[in-house]
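REQUEST ID: PR-0412
SUBMITTED BY: lab tech R.K.
PRIORITY: routine
TASK: structure prediction, single protein chain
INPUT:
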Amino acid sequence: MKNTEKDNNSPTLYDIIKSDLKAFEDLGLLKCAQCGLCTSVCPAALHSDYNPREIVRNVLDNNEDIISDDILWNCFYCYSCHSVCPSNNSPCVINQILRQIAIDQGIGKEHIEPFITYGETFLKIGIGGMPKSFFMDLNRDIEGYLEIKSELDKTRKKLSLGPIQMSEKNIKEVNELLKKSNFQKRLKKLKKD
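STATUS: complete
OUTPUT:
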């Protein structure tokens, strides 16, 4: 459903994106010439149907269907698009904001659900951890991954790196910072929805 006839009081996608904290002040969204440089350097566009130029076009057209389009979840957040844009636009940042809108509307949970364990690990040990559901895929793609993972503490000790685990004091500091950003509340909401 293209949302081209909004009442004058409803913000457009452009308004929502420009007012978001992630949108830097001189984001060149309205200067987009649809040149396609962003798409030409995008690794996601190379390997999927993702097209950063089309994401921007949908925002400029105020097409709210883009919020529920699974294509949003193909962006790698590599910022290649951002680095080449002659208008100082950032489809990557725009995509991040659109994803957050989707999440806030209860859309796309299946795309972020595997990372809930990453957030939980962050709270427990102060750093993120690979979601366990990814281990078998990694083992398929990287020969011996599970063995490397199981020997990680020994390997770190041999390299004089010490354990990955942070001190309790540092974990508490990380948790305080995350609490101030409502991380725990958002994680709890994601688990509940």
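NOTES: The domain at 13-107 is CATH 1.10.1060.10 (Fumarate Reductase Iron-sulfur Protein; Chain B, domain 2).
REVIEWED BY: pending
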